Every structure is written in C-alpha cells, then in structure tokens.
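To the wet lab folks,

You asked to see what we're planning to order before we commit. Fair enough. Below is the target structure as tokens, and below that is the sequence we designed to fit it. If anything looks off to you, flag it before the synthesis order goes out.
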C-alpha cells in the first residue's frame, strides 16, 4: 500500500475512533459547600489558612463560605441566623446539603440548628474543632450572653446534651480535640457520644485552626 494511502487511512481511523469513543468524564461529584462558623471573639480571619488549603484540595472559592456573626449574642439567636445563611448558600450553589466546620463556641449554635431547627436535613457533615460541647470552666471568666451558654450546666447545654441523642439525624458528626487545649476545660468536653471523636495530639485551642495534621484529618472526612 502506498505510504500516502496508509497515512490517510490512519488519520481516518483515528478520527472515527475519536467520534465513537468520547472522553471519559470525571465521575466524582462536586463536594458540598463548606460553611465555617467561628467561635467566641473570633472572626473571618480565623479561617484564612484552612480556606486556602481547601482551595488547594479542589474546592471552588465560592463554595467556601466564611460566615461572620455577633459572637456576644445568645447561641440560640446565632443558630436562627445560621439557618438563614445555610438556606442562602444552598440557594446560591444549588447544593442539597452543606458541610459545617466549627471552631470553639461555633459548635454550640450549629448543634442547636441541627437538633432544634431541622438542620440535619441540610447538613451532611458537622465538624467541631475544640468545641465546648459539655461546657468549659474558662467561660466563668467572661460575661456576655453567649459566654453564659458555655458554662457547664447551662440551660443551652442541658437542651443539647440531656436528650436521648446528642447527635441526632443522618448528619455525620466528628469532633477534634486536644489535651493541650487550655481554653476548653476540661479538654475532653469536646467529645460527644455518637460522634467520631479524634484526639489530635498536643495542639492549642487556636492552633486547631491551622494545624496541618488536624486539617488533613478534617479533609479526609469531608471530601
């Protein structure tokens, strides 16, 4: 067969193969949007490192929502505002559910949203980094309404913890805590029955926000 004919035949076969064999699309679903909820006296800057790492791991920037709120107010008020924010995020992104990543006191308002405001339908995974889930003695040193909620034995903590299931619904619950956390006292207050509770080693309270090992554990859970 003449070389020119063979070359033409090869091109024709390649073109035909391209038509009948479309490229295989990436079958992985887009990860849920993440809503970050800071703690007492915190703010948006708390999450800078973690947001950059999630972007590097493949999340679109518009699906990483750092939510600011008035941390002095009662956590029940914050929970109602969080419900509105999650509804907004779902509407904007088209996602059925979000992931909640919380630090410190942010775990309490988000737990109220889940257990009392029907949030388990809209949250696939809830993460607590150093949350005072059973209170902290540190809260006896501050005097805002939100601080009262964090005191051991508070009415809010009783509402969250004294029922039959402190981790209700189909939501996946995970906590990360450290015995070196000087703000959460006792340090194992973060641990919740029914959650996947992980001790991350000797990591400080604020350090939980940027510690690489803690982030890698959270990433493996939520992606």
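Sequence we intend to order:
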């Amino acid at each position: 067969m003449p070389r020119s004919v063979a070359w033409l035949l090869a091109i024709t076969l390649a073109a035909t193969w391209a038509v009948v064999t479309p490229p295989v699309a990436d079958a992985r679903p887009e990860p849920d949007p993440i809503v970050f909820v800071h703690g007492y006296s915190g703010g948006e800057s708390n999450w800078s490192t973690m947001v950059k790492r999630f972007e590097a791991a493949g999340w679109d920037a518009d699906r990483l929502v750092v939510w600011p709120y008035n941390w002095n107010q009662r956590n029940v008020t914050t929970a109602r505002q969080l419900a509105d924010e999650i509804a907004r995020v779902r509407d904007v992104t088209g996602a059925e559910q979000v992931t909640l990543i919380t630090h410190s006191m942010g775990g309490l308002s988000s737990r109220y949203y889940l257990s009392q405001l029907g949030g388990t339908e809209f949250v696939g995974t809830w993460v607590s980094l150093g949350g005072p889930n059973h209170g902290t003695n540190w809260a006896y040193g501050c005097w805002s309404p939100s601080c009262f909620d964090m005191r051991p034995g508070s009415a809010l903590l009783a509402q969250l913890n004294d029922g039959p299931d402190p981790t209700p619904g189909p939501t996946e619950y995970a906590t990360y805590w450290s015995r070196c956390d000087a703000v959460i006292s006792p340090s194992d207050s973060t641990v919740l029955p029914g959650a996947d509770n992980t001790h991350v080693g000797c990591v400080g309270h604020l350090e939980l926000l940027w510690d690489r090992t803690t982030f890698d554990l959270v990433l493996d859970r939520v992606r």
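Structural context that might help your review: The first strand starts at residue 34 and ends at 37. The domain at 31-222 is CATH 3.40.50.1820 (Rossmann fold).

Thanks,
Computational group
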